[in-house]
Amino acid sequence: MDRLKTTWEGHYLDGQTSASKKAEIHPLAAGLSVRLEDGGRFLWSYEEIQQIQGRYEGEPVRLERGGDSGEALIIQDTDLLTAMRELSPAAASRFHDPGFRGTRKWLTFYAAIATVVVGLSLYHWGIPFLANLIAPRVPISWEKGLGKSELDIMAPAEKRILDARLNRVLGQILSRLAATVPHCPYRFEVTVVDLPIVNAFALPGGSILVYRELLETTQTPEELAGVLAHEMQHVLKRHTTKRLIQDSSTALLISALSGDATGSAAFALQSAGKLALLEYSREEEEEADREGMKMILAAGINPQGMIRFFRTIEGKGKEPEFLKFISTHPATADRIQKLKAIVAATPNAPAPRALLPGTDWKALIRETRRLK
Amino acid sequence: MALSDQPRKFSFYGQGGTLFGMHLVNLFLGLVTLGLYFFWGRVKIRKYLWGQMEFEGDRFSYHGTGKETLLGWLKAMLFFGIPYLAAGKLPQLLGADKILIVVGALFSALLFLLFIPMAVIGSRRYRLSRTSWRGIRFSFRESWKHYFGLFIAGNILIVLTLGLFTPFYSARRDKFLISNSFVGNQNFEYDGKGGDLFGSYALALILAIPTLFLSMLWYHVKRTVYLWGHTSIAGARFQSTVTFGGMFKLYLVNFLMVLFTLGFAYPWAQVRAIRYTLDHLTLNGPVDLDAIQQDAQAVTATGEELASFLELDFDLG
């Protein structure tokens, strides 16, 4: 770097035509003194100069005067910037310090690390916190609307089992369970779908979907009550709504990380429509088990039903041990252990009263099947 | 010097590393400002990319601002994004009847069809007006309204002809987009015809599946060369010397790079792509590059026309 240099060569654009003129630039304390090849001379004070280019490797320095006037000086050598900064410390902040480039690299590196930290925190704490905050405030009417649309998709009319007696009986079980919830904001209802699947789903708003084969797997109404209690807890604890919020927020975060600011909003809301693929987290499944069992006990229903049903599921060989860590569903053996522990820890539960006195459960289910 | 017959070259000096660093800082600042910084970050990257492109010894400049980008995005969200999502999702959310859901979906689709031509023209106009070379601003001087008819009719014909109309539509669209683009007071011209490329297009379509879509890349290269070759300004013609082999290698290496680094190498891929395009682009013919005049009217009018209402900066390519 030649500290004794006092003039720099560059070229000048007048912003009126594309013709450029060679220029000699001489930095002074007040500004830049410029002499053009055609004899023209002028002085640009530092306050009116903006540096447009020249902050990166290989970029020539481009200094512009005024707003959109287009008048510009282009100089290859960044030493001019250093000279300008030295001559007028007051104006130094307007111009890039080529020496800063090393520091900039380090700052970039720190920014990268900070990004990873911030990103992970948002994902691990920020988003769940947000979901917990918002979910209880979502109006029930919205949940019901969503639930109704999903129900239409998952339980098409021709596949639904509409048996008056079955529905009355299911209603009785639901009422008994719902009675344990003071000021219950939901009206629960069960829809039975005629498919050979052993599963049940809770939809936002209070709709519960039960598949025929699950019904046939139950030996007593107490077993079904266990399943219904579990699903009701998913609704009461707003797990589905939380899932929706979390999935949308995560999609938003991912879009942000991939740099797509324009599409992120649309994308986030679009992923909110993927209800059918929702799965609950392990914590949420455990909560549904736990609160469901408490509900059973509070309603005076024999808890052995719920436990026996889980044993039946376990017997059907749901998943091998090593999958326990990957799957969001806790292993069935664990779930049974936990349920038993709750029963043991609640000696003051009301004494169990028969759920449907006088009803032959197996016959009821069999007859329903025959009707179809 | 001004009227020489030498081919005039483009160059690109951008570095993948610098771009990568910019993306990182953007990401960080974007996260801590809950997304607000992204608009300024995008402008910064554009300023860098434009500033690293050079033609005949002078660099391009990008004059966009973060504020403009943010405002453009807000306008788009307000007039398209939100109505589109509301009409499409709200009926379902509120459990409305099936009829309302269908009407909502139709409305969304129509809004989307209206939006595309507006956005294509709006973003082109915005980007051109914020680009300059040797201090002279570019501009686009047509309204999206005159593009709308072409867009709708063209796409209907494409569907009806099972895609065969595409080269004809492309030629008309390119003519509209190119011949209404100006640098200063000089306009670009396009004299390409759909028929010239139809043969190649049909061949590429037929061979698409047997060649695992490589024929489409071949057509893309042919079209790129044709497009540049039929674009001219002030009597001088552009020329692109990209080849199928070159493009194939470029895309393949880029793809592998990005894949094996889980996306981190994207800035390097971007730089490679731009460099390849510009290294193979020249402007041929006697043209007085010193004689382009600033068109002051175009510069200020961009803020006043009603058409500029939807002047937005979209990444619609």
Mean pLDDT of chain B: 86
Low-confidence stretches of chain B: 298-309
Helix content of chain B: 55-70%
Oligomer: heterodimer
What is the number of E strands of chain B? 10
- Beta-strand residue percentage of chain A: 5-15%
Structural class of chain B: alpha+beta
Q: Secondary-structure element order of chain A, as H and E?
A: EEEEEEEHHHHEEEHHHHHHHH
Indicate how many domains the architecture of chain A comprises: 3
Number of strands of chain A: 10
Beta-strand share of residues of chain B: 5-15%
Q: Helix count of chain A?
A: 12
Description:
The complex is a heterodimer of chains A (372) and B (317). Chain A has 372 residues and is an alpha+beta fold. Chain A folds into three domains: 8-98, Pleckstrin-homology domain (PH domain)/Phosphotyrosine-binding domain (PTB) (PH-domain like); 99-137; 139-371, no CATH class. Chain A has helices at residues 79-87, 100-134, 140-154, 164-178, 212-217, 221-236, 239-257, 264-271, 282-298, 304-315, 332-345, 361-371, and strands at residues 8-13, 20-27, 31-36, 41-45, 49-53, 61-65, 72-75, 189-193, 200-203, 207-211. Chain A has a seven-stranded antiparallel beta sheet. In chain A, helix 6 crosses helix 9, helix 6 crosses helix 10 (304-315) and helix 10 (304-315) runs antiparallel to helix 11. The longest helix of chain A is centred in the N-terminal third of the chain and has 35 residues, at 100-134. Chain A is rod-shaped. The relative contact order of chain A is 0.08. By secondary structure, chain B is of the alpha+beta class. Chain B contains eleven helices and ten strands. In chain B, strands 1-2-3-4-5-6-7-8-9-10 form a ten-stranded antiparallel barrel, surrounded by five helices. In chain B, a hairpin with a 2-residue loop joins strand 8 (231-233) and strand 9 (236-240). In chain B, 31% of the residues are buried. Residues 298-309 of chain B have low confidence and may be disordered.
